[in-house]
Structures are given as C-alpha cells and as structure tokens.
Amino acid sequence: MDNIESIRIVITGLLAIYAIIWVIPGTIMSAIVSLGDPKRIAFIDEQLSKDHKKLQENWSSMLFSNIATRLFGYWLAYPLIFHRVKTSSKKFKLFMWFNTLGMWSCIGALTLSLIGKS
User: Fold this and answer.
1) Running DSSP on this structure, what letter comes out for residue 63?
2) How confident is the model at residue 18 (pLDDT cuts 50, 70, 90)?
C-alpha cells in the first residue's frame, strides 16, 4: 500500500507541475481566442465541430463567453475528437495537445490530491 501511495504522490506532483507551467500560457491563449479575431474560433470550429456552420450563424455563439466555454470544451474533448481535424497544420495540433494536456493535468492533479485525503 505504501508503494501505491508513493506512486500517486509522484503522479500528482508531475501533473501539478505541468498544470502550473500551463496555467499562464493557457489563460493567455484562451483570452486571445475568446477576445480576439473571430476567425480564430471559426477555424477551430471548422476543424472540430460537427456542425460549424450552425455555430457561425448563431450570433450568441460568437460572444466571448461562449467562445471561451466552447474552446475549453474542445480542449477537454480533443483526445476523443482529434480525428475530425482536417488541417495538416502541426502548429494547430501542437496548440490543441498542449492545452488538452494542461486541462487534463489540472483535473488529474486535483482529483488525485482529493483521493489521497479520503
């Protein structure tokens, strides 16, 4: 049991380190996409959404708060939806994996730290 606890602590620490490193650039990137040129989220929608035209037609989906929520959703779901990507851009794929790992490392570190307290 002691070995499992040590492994959990190490994994929690590694996830927390990545989460801490990711938080500032992740926040900046989400602000750039949410508050910046709508073409950025339109491109991400084209790559990952099932019906990107429906999103573009609805004006409320282009509000910064809805863009940020959708972007976080894409970051969380990316491991399951990356097969939808149509572009061969390595920059886009790196952007998505960097942020996906950041979101999941936050969730993982918090979850593992709570498991240890029970």
Assistant:
1) S
2) very high
